[in-house]
User: Fold this.
Amino acid sequence: MDAHAHHGEFDGPWWRFGPMRTALAAGALASLTWALGHLGGWHTLEPIGYTLAAIIGGRHFALEAVESLWRKREVSIDLLMSAAAIGSALLGLWDEAAVLVFLYATAEALEEYAYARTRSAICALLDLTPKEARVLQGGQEVTVPAEQLRVGDRLVVRPGEVLPTDGVVREGASSVNESAVTGEAMPKEKAVGDLVFAGSLNQHGAFVVEATAAFADNTLAKIVHMVEEAQEQKGQVQRFIDRFGRRYSPAVLAAAILLLIVPPLFGQPFIHWAIRAIVLLVAAAPCALVMSAPVATAAGIGIAGRHGVLIKGGAHLENLGRVRVVAFDKTGTLTEGKPDVADVVPIGPISAERLLQLAASAEQRSEHMLAQAIVTHARDQGIAVQPAAAFEALVGLGATARVAGHRILVGNADLLLARGIAIDQGRDVLTRLQGEGKTVVGVATDDALVGFVALQDRLRPQARGTVEALHRLGMKTVLLTGDHERTAVAIAHDAGIQSYYAGLKPEEKVQHIRRLGAEVGPVAMVGDGINDAPALAAASVGIAMGAAGTDAAIEAADVALMADDLGKVVYALKLGKAARTITTQNILFSLLILSVLIPGALIGALTIVVAVVAHEVSELLAVANGLRVARARIGVEA
Assistant:
């Protein structure tokens, strides 16, 4: 069995599959011939009936055998089987030739069918997008085929409808289920300016979306295209087996020819050794071995794609199964990448509410991320933000404004000191908050310190569970961050990560990854893909999170998680382990079969039919075992 380039997809029952129908037709004709010969006494018909059955069933693989020999100068397994069938017929063993062809063609068809199914499972993602879209043209809604969508078209999407392509929300708001793209079941809130993806289900509100991709280039189409390409790429094990097969199959053919020629030269009966030569061709053909890796790889990559995990080739799936260390980036990976107010600490007679109100009022017109976090926090607490006058943003330091007749200054400790504001009575609080890895902002009213607001990048809710799951798998965990030591300590502690390295430049992350690889073993680097590209590329497996909508992350990584779900890291690693285990089982099993069949063939203990049955059953078991990767019990932990 050659691991053909399995193109095409198929979603029906196995008996409707083209190659399967041909094999079954050959089987039916052979059975009819046997019945007419043995029960009806029409013995003269047998050679014709069996030959026709062999031609119908064997045409496809015999042509492939000739093509490999002619084009690539390769002795393929198809050639070994064709030679065995022709040899049987020449010796007058018509029925054996027909049975051999029928069984081999059936096994071949089932394996092709398994591939076609794993392909159609991923292609079915594309069927999630609607065939038509409603486009606004001159204020009117016009229904057009989805294929005709262009960048810049404005689409109307009503509740319960699926988005035909990627876009940006321009009017309205809703919550959207993106599980087709990201594998995440929790709905996401979307408002004006937010990105939405093809295949997402709009749940409540109607909105207008401006298309950012033509239908053929949308996120779902990219996922399907990438998974299809990935299934064609081979891992190291598979490349080794292919190389082995290219040398081993000609050796089998040569051995069979020697068996046919040498013993008769020493007066042995020709027919006796000719049959042994044919049995050897069948028994020694390495079908199960050649099929041991590709089916598991295709099934693993296909099922991962449907869960929002893009694995970009067989080699990466194989590497996932070997990982010993998982290195995490901090911002946007372990944390959500946006600051939150953690503490509001008054100094002196002011209340915490009033302190927050003053800070938010002064900061309300600032563009800064910290400022916006303070304003949002105040509003969430139900605190009214007061009007502010004479607002002035102090770049990188803070802001100042007049609120209710007082001059309010909000900024870091350096700014307060530079403005001559004494912070002595708050020094202990400041040191404590900074020691917890928080960013601290001081608030002063009319040049007197009134308190501090501490902000912290929030740890993702599933971070701790993910790290614990990795430790249960026997992995080591490391945090590599450009942030300062205090923050690194706090995050590593909260997430349960074993070791951390802080204050790293991108090239230093790469050095740490190489060192970990040398000291511990293969490293998986998990990052958000934008500033982590060098580290992702240096790791044995680079895993980019939240890749939906960021091409840079998909390009840099070996594995792209479409969602911001850390639990998917565990899923990808478990899938890699399952694929590796199953491939190893298949290889050992196929070598065991060969070690029994080859000696059996040489000593004449097997008939052609027994050899064929043993050979095809072992191959089908290898294929069935490979498909188990897609059904492996690896729940996504969070």
Remarks:
- Residues 1-7 have pLDDT under 50 and may be disordered.
- The radius of gyration is 33 Å.
- The longest strand covers residues 335-346.
